[in-house]
């Protein structure tokens, strides 16, 4: 728009000038407001409560009775187990698997204590083995004998710790890779005895990556600096993970449970390929529910396809944390909080799994692979 001043009367253009100046003045005020405020907020403290109003279906009791296949309890040899049994009932946990049998003496004491208190149907124990003495001449023979004896005493499986595939060294000071040939006799024996091998290999891959603004586990590594690994400390992540895959492939008659979704919960395409290639491998949900809860559609497809290969486990036993697992698996809730910000600075979405899949994940698959559990405690 152009205005022809000469054709206007004086009061008109005075008015116009006043109008233009006031426009300029208010524009400049507006300009000042667009400058960012000079305040700072750090990543750790910025965690505003959500204002989103959507249906909420918190779950403190699982929809079906379940088996927690991944738990650690150090004092079962002499502890009063009644409080644990009470907590299990409030969660609808029918069976808990303590992977930390430690050694023959502790394991048999645990089994005896469980029996004495009448919980032999509810609480089971897995064996552990020592691999630091692997270079001893009679190591394989003795370890196999230990397993046979412990299974006879009540052990239901073998647990391999991440420390064993990462930090345990032989008498010559070398790291013992978990696919060491001397261990072959052990994997074969587990197959023969009909017990599963529950194996935790490595840690989240981010622990091996640079600790900077591109690392999704930055906060965890800041709070737990001992978890940080250099790129080849004690070996590259892919090497340690690959050593576990190698034993799964070479022992097809043994059932392996790859803990924590084999640390591929953030790449379900890849995990699916591994499950396709390795029919004797199962995966377990411990400590990766936050990965599933950020990809509810993809994760649900994965559960639909691999519903016969997934078992429920939690790892650290904190009763109040199970609610998040139930809610992610069972509901269609949106954008609800996870309980540990250093695992997930994002929020959760439910997978809304159908009952038949929930039953398999909660107990049917575990009943298939752990020997001598009482299936009559669970629905059809
Ligand atoms: Zn564990």
Name some characteristics of this structure.
5-stranded parallel beta sheet; binds zinc ion; 3-stranded parallel beta sheet; 380 residues
Describe the overall structure.
With 380 residues, the chain is of the alpha/beta class. The chain has a single domain, classed as Metal-dependent hydrolases (TIM Barrel, Alpha-Beta Barrel), CATH 3.20.20.140. It has 13 helices and eight strands. It has a five-stranded parallel sheet. A three-stranded parallel sheet has the order 1-2-3. Helix 3 (104-116) packs parallel to helix 4 and helix 4 (139-153) runs parallel beside helix 6. The radius of gyration is 29 Å and the shape is elongated. The chain starts with 9 loop residues before the first helix and ends in an 11-residue tail after the last helix. The model has no long low-confidence stretch (mean pLDDT 94). Bound molecules: zinc ion (ZN). Zinc ion is lined by residues 70, 72, 99, 200, 315. Zinc ion (ZN) is lined by residues 70, 72, 99, 200, 315.
């Amino acid at each position: 728009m152009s205005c022809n001043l000469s054709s206007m009367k004086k009061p008109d253009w005075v008015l116009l000038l006043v109008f233009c100046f006031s426009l300029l003045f208010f524009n400049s005020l507006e300009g000042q407001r667009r400058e960012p405020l000079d305040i700072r907020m750090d990543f750790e403290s910025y965690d505003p409560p959500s204002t989103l109003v959507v249906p909420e279906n918190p779950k403190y009791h699982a929809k079906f009775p379940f088996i927690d296949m991944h738990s650690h309890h150090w004092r079962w040899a002499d502890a009063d187990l009644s409080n644990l049994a009470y907590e299990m009932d409030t969660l609808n946990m029918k069976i808990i698997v303590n992977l930390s049998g430690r050694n023959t003496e502790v394991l048999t004491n645990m089994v005896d204590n469980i029996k004495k208190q009448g919980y032999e149907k509810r609480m089971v124990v897995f064996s552990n083995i020592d691999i630091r003495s692997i270079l001893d001449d009679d190591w394989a023979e003795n370890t196999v004998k230990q397993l046979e004896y412990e299974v006879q005493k009540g052990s239901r499986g073998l647990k391999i710790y991440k420390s064993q595939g990462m930090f345990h060294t032989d008498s010559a000071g070398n790291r013992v890779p978990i696919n060491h040939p001397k261990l072959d006799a052990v994997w074969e024996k587990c197959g023969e005895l009909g017990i599963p091998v529950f194996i935790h290999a490595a840690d989240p891959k981010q622990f091996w990556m640079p600790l900077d603004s591109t690392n999704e586990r930055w906060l965890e590594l800041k709070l737990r600096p001992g978890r940080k690994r250099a790129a080849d400390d004690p070996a590259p992540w892919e090497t340690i993970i690959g050593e576990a895959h190698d034993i799964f492939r070479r022992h097809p008659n043994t059932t392996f449970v790859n803990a924590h979704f084999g640390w591929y919960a953030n790449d379900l395409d890849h995990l699916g390929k591994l499950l396709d290639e390795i029919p004797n491998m199962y995966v377990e949900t411990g400590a990766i529910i936050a990965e599933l809860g950020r990809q509810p559609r993809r994760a649900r497809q994965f559960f639909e396809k691999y519903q016969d290969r997934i078992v429920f486990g939690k790892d650290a036993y904190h009763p109040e944390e199970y609610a998040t697992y139930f809610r992610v698996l069972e509901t269609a809730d949106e954008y609800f909080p996870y309980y540990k910000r250093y695992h997930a600075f994002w929020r959760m979405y439910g997978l809304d799994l159908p009952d038949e899949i929930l039953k398999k994940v909660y107990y049917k698959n575990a009943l298939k692979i752990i020997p001598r559990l009482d299936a009559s405690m669970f629905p059809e």
